[in-house]
């Protein structure tokens, strides 16, 4: 029997995509990053809100740094629900004190705070009253004195860099997703209207596209951000409002070509509404290039957000943005602690590269002429 295979364009495109090693690898990497973004607070060693647990005495420590940590339970029993903790972290966190050493005394624990090993710190006694009732000193030692390892080290405020990186993935994915969604909604709508109706409507929309296109993207984003105010959601809207023009131009060109097809003429002859013709017949045959543009725009949105955070007008502290992390630590490059800026830089580079590679793979797969 002959080998029977589906000849639909979608199946052919999928087979071509699977043959692209870098495209498939990028796809799995993006899926992994999306998984981390969703479960960030479950995976992060520091599950406090924004991974913002500070230990100033152990700031700027190298990857793999270990220290003894005395944990004092929070006395505030009111906290978020389980679902809120999953999405936003723990609000009332336990207090953590890095220590060099400790002694068990009758009424509590005598600790020597961490002091770089140069000067012996002034001792401090922590009473048993700070721990749950009913525990003796040995139980306190076992449960509340731990050796903590910072896999990626700590930042200049003594926060766990790994936790900040994991939670920071959410910012990059959120900005990319929302910005691309806004750009697709605006771009596809205006591009389809301009290409389908033509005439004065087309001229007006093309004038708007050309004016927006002529303004440097970063300057336009900064202007919109300053108009809306600094903040998390303002950046999302600002980036999305600057990325729709390329989508609109491509959709307009595709619609100009598709609307000349016989099936569109037949739909008009049958008396279908313009809305139905555009949504059911024109757009489904015009959106292949838009998928590629969306992947590239996702990468561009991540870069723009990182740039805005570096300039101080993106996501505001203590929200862990990769761009803001580079801003906080780029001066440490000349101090022998370049990893504080390089690690978030590698995060940005790898995620942007993955989206660009998957965009290239989609472009090749959707090229029916190839």
Structure report:
It is a single chain. This protein has two domains: 62-150, no CATH class; 161-365, MetI-like (MetI-like fold, Orthogonal Bundle). The relative contact order is 0.13. Helix 6 crosses helix 13 and helix 13 packs parallel to helix 14 (322-329). It has helices spanning 9-18, 21-38, 40-43, 82-88, 137-144, 161-197, 199-214, 217-228, 232-240, 244-258, 262-269, 274-282, 288-311, 322-329, 339-365; strands at 65-72, 95-105, 108-113, 124-127, 145-150. A hairpin with a 2-residue loop joins strand 2 (95-105) and strand 3. It has a five-stranded antiparallel β-sheet. It has 370 residues and is of the alpha+beta class.
Quick structural overview:
It contains 15 helices and 5 strands.
Descriptive tags:
370 residues; alpha+beta; MetI-like fold; 5 strands; elongated
Number of strands: 5
Structural shape: elongated
Number of discrete helical segments? 15
* CATH level 1 class label of the largest domain: Mainly Alpha
Taking all residues together, what is the mean pLDDT?
85
Proportion of residues in extended strands: 5-15%
Which structural class matches the secondary elements?
alpha+beta
Question: Strand order of the main beta sheet, please?
Answer: 4-3-2-1-5
**CATH H level of the largest domain: which superfamily?**
MetI-like
CATH fold field value of the largest domain: MetI-like fold
SSE topology string:
HHHEHEEEHEHHHHHHHHHH
How far is it from the N-terminal to the C-terminal residue, by CA? 28 Å
Helix content: 55-70%
Characterize the largest beta sheet: strand count, sense, and whether it forms a barrel: 5 strands, antiparallel
How many domain regions?
A: 2
Uncertain runs are 1-6
